[in-house]
Amino acid sequence: MIRAVIFDVGECLVDETTEYSSWADWLGVPRHTFHAMFGAVIAQGRDYRDVFQEFRPGFDLYEEREKRAGVGKAETFGEADLYPDVRDALAALRADGLWLGIAGNQTVRAGKILRELFSSAVDLIGTSDDWGASKPDPGFFDQVAEVVPAARGEMLYVGDRIDNDIRPAAAAGMQTALVHRGPWATIQWNTEEAQKLPTFRVDSLTELAPRIRQFNGREH
Ligand SMILES: [Mg+2]
User: What is the CA(114)–ligand 1 centre distance, in A?
Assistant: First the structure.
């Protein structure tokens, strides 16, 4: 029985096109080139942050974030950057009586934006910076398990990455949903692990409410 649904942020709720385009601009690299290299780094199984090193060796992401903020170009996102199915999906899940959370690898600054956007739509918002543990570390999912009022097997973690979301959430004993969008899911979708490991594979978040209803119905 699934009683709680917890969402990843980047490329699950938020389309990061604006964000990474702004990083390309900041580096002075054509956007098309930056996005292509981003995909190449993912396909090579490397940490996506290596993309910055490819263009500027020694790049320090934390330092550059501060520099951007200092000149009024801080990383940001808003309602216009949400995938168009997000609001409808959250409303449908909530109408079905499910407990909802958002938990991702996010900065304190992003956590503040998430609270402005989603405080009235979900029950809890937690970030890696709040918790001092980030995905894919088991400690992150232990934090999720601790704050969500359900058993681990009753939680559905929804994300776009096999490596950071689905694999560690499944290892933590949670149900999982892989959403088919963004660079990671697009690149990883046809791998054997992506085909077999998730409880659900969905093209849109609006598929979740009916899939959960069906899943819960089957258990009776
Ligand atoms: Mg993500």
Answer: 14
**For residue 185, how far is its CA from the centre of ligand 1 (angstroms)?**
9
159-214 tens-digit pLDDT: 999 999 999 999 999 999 999 999 999 999 999 999 999 999 999 999 999 999 99
Q: Where are the domains of the chain?
A: 4-15+79-218, 17-70
Q: How far is the CA of 162 from the centre of ligand 1 (A)?
A: 10
Whole-angstrom distance, CA of residue 70 vs CA of residue 184: 30
- Separation of 10 CA from ligand 1 center, angstroms? 4
Q: What CATH architecture applies to the domain 4-15+79-218?
A: 3-Layer(aba) Sandwich (3.40)
What pTM, to 2 d.p., does this model score? 0.96
Task: Report CA(220)–ligand 1 centroid distance (Å).
Answer: 32
How far away, in angstroms, is 13 Cα from ligand 1 center? 8
Alpha carbon of 89 to ligand 1 centroid (Å): 17
Amino acid identity at 104: G
